[in-house]
Amino acid sequence: MNFEFDDDTEAFRQYLKDFAQSELAPHYQSDDREGRFHEGLHKQLAELGLFGLLIPESLGGQAAKYVTSGMACEEIARADFNAGWLVTNSLLLSDIINTHGSEAQKKRWLPPIASGEQVPAICLTEPGHGTDAGALEMRAERDGSIWRLTGEKTSISLGMHAEYALVFARTGGPGAGGVSGFYVRLTDKEVSRTAYRDVGGRAIGRASIHFDGLPVAAEDMLGAENKGFSTVMQGFDYSRALIGLLCIGSGQASIDEALEYSKLRHAFGQPIGKFQGVTFPLIEFSTHLRAARLLSYEVLWRKDKGLPHTAEGAMVKWWAPRLSHDAAHQALLTFGQLGYSEDFPHAQRMRDIMAMEIGDGTAQVSKLIAARQLLGREFAP
Ligand SMILES: Cc1cc2nc3c(=O)[nH]c(=O)nc-3n(C[C@H](O)[C@H](O)[C@H](O)COP(=O)(O)OP(=O)(O)OC[C@H]3O[C@@H](n4cnc5c(N)ncnc54)[C@H](O)[C@@H]3O)c2cc1C
Predict the structure, then answer these.
(1) Can you give the residue ranges of the Acyl-CoA dehydrogenase/oxidase N-terminal domain (predicted)?
(2) What pLDDT digit, counting tens, does each position of 314-332 carry?
(3) Cβ atoms within 10 A of the Cβ of 238, count?
(4) What residue's CA is closest to ligand 1, atom 38?
(5) What band does 230 get if pLDDT is binned at 50, 70 and 90?
(6) In the chain, where are the structural domains located?
(7) What confidence score (pLDDT) does residue 381 get?
(8) Which fold has domain 121-225?
(9) For residue 164, what pLDDT is reported?
């Protein structure tokens, strides 16, 4: 057993932590109020190599371990959950392309993601199909040598900002076996977008995206025809740990701030940190967050080692977002009346973290995945 990062990862963590606290934390709440990321953020994150962590060095990336990418998500989210979400989204998509793309596709698509030139999105969910994504209706139809994409994708993270997207559409018969993935440009005239007014994640710009016969070259299909669904689902196993660490970083920040506050705030002639009613809930959350963090890193360690991690990833996905949300809530209460003010970040953290109780799969479906792994496929409903 070894509970330490290697020396390089630890040095990078310290650097990221300092960077995030000095450069990102001051914008976390103002970006939420503005409903967009502040100027220069994308460039800063790209210069740190964060979008390219899972991209080969020959294509402008860092070729980092999955554990390192999780550490980056955690440290960035500790200061700014939404900047961490931005990074997580690019990590997932770039890794799908790197795993399933042809050499020519990787050369075209990965360098602009690593350099931060292009913000990509993942378009799977539709108005009629979320959890049951394999039933999606969007059509890709052959038109001579090209495909044409028609339909609506909904609830797309970064949907208002992304220049490119991996879009899943039906190319074959019913069910998950008839779905293919296409990497497409979103700036063409056949694409239109509608913004959501969201509870949290406001800088992310979630959107519905309409495709009205968008022409796509045959060579822009990612992976084999009708194999798109298994491609993306495979990617989602370890990304659940990245999402877990995103949430844990943010929830832990609130707990750390509440512990500090409990030393400073006095009531009845003593610091409130002397009251067990104040400290016990904070200690309980510290314990649970620590355990969820270790499970998240175990998933990424397993991915690095090529070991199975589907059940562990699903466990993190149902647990970490809810736990981290509740931790931020407990921290808010520890600050008393001050916590209820937007001068403090706890309520925003609750709103932001809550996104991950739904995005990338709800708690119910995550538990179904874990149950299928532990009990066997014959116990799937
Ligand atoms: C902030 C945010 C960001 C997102 N970003 C993206 C993105 O970038 N790209 C993308 O493609 N999608 C994205 N999504 C969509 C997300 O993946 C879906 O919302 C999610 O998969 C659930 O689908 P749904 O909302 O249609 O709910 P539904 O599938 O309609 O489910 C409704 C309720 O029923 C429950 N339920 C459904 N089936 C079962 C079952 N078999 N057993 C028990 N309970 C069940 C669900 O858990 C849920 O509580 C995002 C969502 C959010 C909130």
Answers:
(1) 7-117
(2) 999 999 999 999 999 999 9
(3) 26
(4) 131
(5) confident
(6) 7-119, 121-225, 229-379
(7) 81
(8) Butyryl-CoA Dehydrogenase, subunit A; domain 2 (2.40.110)
(9) 98
Structure tokens at 207: 């959107």
CA of 132 to the centre of ligand 1 (A): 8
Ligand 1 pocket, residue 226 CB under 6 Å: no
Q: What is the pTM of this model?
A: 0.97
CATH number given to 229-379: 1.20.140.10
Q: Cβ(208) to ligand 1 under 6 A? A: no
| Domain 7-119: top CATH class | mainly alpha
Position 193 scores a pLDDT of 98
Distance CA 62, CA 48 (A): 10
Domains 7-119 and 229-379 fall in the same CATH topology: no
Q: pLDDT tens digits for 241-289?
A: 999 999 999 999 999 999 999 999 999 999 999 999 999 999 999 999 9
Looking from the CA of residue 368, the nearest atom of ligand 1 is 42
